[in-house]
Design brief:
Elements lengths: L6 H11 L4 H5 L5 H8 L7 H11 L3 H6 L3 H20 L2 H15 L4 H17 L3 H17 L6 H15 L2 H18 L5 H13 L7 H13 L8 H16 L3 H38 L4 H15 L5 H17 L3 H15 L5 H16 L5 H14 L9 H16 L3 H14 L18
Length: 450
Amino acid sequence: MPSQGTIGDRVRGLRLSRRMSQAQLAGPDLSDSYVSLIESGKRTPTPVVARLLAERLGCTTEFLLHGIEPRQRIDTELGLRHAELELQHGDPGVAAERFGEIVKVAGEENAMLAAHARLGRARSLEAQDRVGPAVEAFERLRREAAAHPERLADLPLTVALSRCYQRAGDTLRAHDLATYALSQVNHLALTQGEIAIELAAALVETEAARPQSPGLSYVRHILAVNGVPSVVNRTAEIHSLWQASVAAAEGEDSALAVRLADDAIATGRPARMAFRLAGIALEWARLTVSLGTSSEEVYELATAASGVFATFDEKVNEYAGSLVVLARLQLGSGNPDGAVNLASSALDTLSGQASPTAAAAHLVLAQAALSRGEGGVLPRLNTAGELLHALRSERSNPDREVARAWRELGDLYGRVGAGEEQTNAYRKALEAAGVRDAMVGMTVDSTLVR
């Protein structure tokens, strides 16, 4: 059965395959000129007319309207859900492949399904840290959303692009997109739900250098409205529902498989929202530490965020990162002993893993030693530098977290009088931030990489 092209193409193809004239297809209810207009794409049949034409052409209304049979459509919908579960709870690389396969199966005659699959693939590329291809994919989708707003919403794509450009080091483009998204969200008075929270996550990074910006005011409001909710680890339940959905599909019960997959996705949603809010809270706490404006409310938010990550074994690095943030808050409040305990716990949690978080923990220990007038600061700083050096070959994209650690290392080298090491650390900070043309012999201002 032909399925290519538009509704008009399918009507014409089926009519010719059945050796019917336009007048025969029109029958007593329609005019042959109206059938001609449908076939030429100048008219779209109403649901009633579509059902009538489908009966006379011997096909389903679903096929006539969408170019796909009901069973094919539900199988494609199921494929989208399983790819989404792979993205959220499995392997983003596998998810990207599955979304790509759905794009091919859906085709342009099923534009809505194809668009959702392309969006899923873009998100999968971002999850793999393939920022360049992700930006290209999101930009194409945004152009599609402008041309066909019935298929895709522009606002989530704008937020995603802001996030990706920030990770790619194009902070001006990221800021412009986030500002545009903020104007749209304010117009909608949107402060809850995934779009609002995703925008706040983008703004807390793009607006970090603008403490009085409307963007950071929005972040504060999002945290005030939503807080950081406690969450239950339901990972086992999610995977059980997912496997049950796969089993139902293998038993050719597609409707049940879709329902089980929907249940699995819904079960994981509270944790996904909590993770994002926890990340926003920690970024907010880091910002307040750098500005010297920490408060008891900020400490409570960071503590709640730490509790979210502690609930999930797979969030070890995020949990360790939350301990480092709490340690910095303790330093800021004049409690170096508490900071040492938290930073040491972060290192124990990481079990020797080389990461920006481990380097940051050593920097906190060095700061605590400085505040107490103790020795052993330089070895701590050198250890942090070694850890950051070990990450250079692993991270090809600009990395704000690594840049921030190098910058702080440079600041601390300056405090202990290690001028050469300080200059080198600042250069590494610029490189990590995506700036690779610092002139030899140039003195680097640490504010450039804050």
